[in-house]
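Batch manifest line 454
LIGAND: iron/sulfur cluster
JOB: complex structure
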Amino acid sequence: MNTPTHKIHIITLGCAKNTVDSEALHSQLRGNDFELTENMNNASVAIINTCGFIEEAKKQSIETILEAVKRKNEGKLQHVYVMGCLSERYHADLQREIPEVSGFFGSNDQPKIVSALGGNYKYELLGERALSTPRHYAYVKISEGCDNPCSFCAIPLMRGTHRSKPIEQIMSEVMKLVAKGVKELIVIGQDTTYYGLDLYGSRKLASLLRSLATVKELEWIRLMYAYPAKFPLDVLDVFAENPKICPYIDIPVQHASDEVLKSMRRGITRRAVTELIGKIRSAVPHIALRTTLIAGYPNETESDVNELIEFMREIEFDRLGVFTYSQEDDTAAYALGDPIPQEEKENRRARLMEVQRQISIRRNEEKIGSVVRAVVERKEDGVFAGRTVWDAPEIDDEIFIAGSERHPQESGRSRSGASAPEREMFNLSAGTFVDVLVTDATEHDLYGKAVHQS
Ligand code: SF4
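JOB STATUS: finished
ARTIFACT:
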């Protein structure tokens, strides 16, 4: 077979699940001797891994496709290929409306993409990934698709029904990741709590986490996308018994009004969510809980918003994000229309985020004077930026660490009068795990100095 001449640039939009798919595709293309480039200007082929989750994400995906097509029309690209969720969902429409695209592929069509480029899909490379994250952390996708009936969600339309990956396959993938230097593993799926039910007939997330915790090279294992209804409580035993499992769970609850939760088909009530969180916090003290809420769902009333605010104040999530409702065709909620104007949705989102801002600043200030575990991500103005064990990459808070060269005060970062700077105490770099004495806090960040490195 002739050596491919293409120079390929992959653009990844959307969530960490898309990141994993792009990394796997990168590995396949490299396995076919294609050249990959991080720089679009050097590329002859662009592959866009799209997101089709909500309106905002769809808009960004289409804009990115049109930009690439413009480059093709200007002769700067030979081919533009589109893959992922938006393409899975709107294949025919996109093909009709953007004929300049050389090929549209779904969210599970990697063999077709590789052969469209003139290569052969290499099954022996399954589980191999060309990491696009910093070397010290990586996502591991333990399943694909989702069987939950959430009325607002189009993901099952784009990713299909739930398919768990066999545990052996996950472990072999993880061993390849730690061989590349990965120390933090972020466990993802559409619904990680469902893991194993389709494949083994029962929920196996706890035993999967237990297996992952045996990997000695791993420092942190972080659980994301936990669906609250039917949460497997045996998972909490693994959290309690194993220090590698970060005291952190991303558990989207979406709302707290039973009327809204019922219409959303979330299969849970406010009371049951509160009880579950109580169980999680008593099993794993100091755990950080991240959640996601939706503002402006069709049947949401002013009193529902007030109930949600009351719930937020009662639970006090550590990390929280709010999406405004996006009416998605072919979802169960579509028939409810979209009665709440976007401006009012934004207003509700702002009210919820203001409540969270107050909670976040107080919870962060409570950490001043304590020593927290953190990983360094980068260096910025002589100070190291990192994440605590309570923060996932890209979506959560940061911690700014003094440990060598210049103290934050000199870089004008800290407001409180921390003690005289230590010099050259620690040899910090991206991927270093360090204990940090917290000296200052804002609503989204902590500040401190390194006290122990390991
Ligand atoms: S759990 Fe619900 S919101 Fe999440 S991917 Fe599945 S259907 Fe969508």
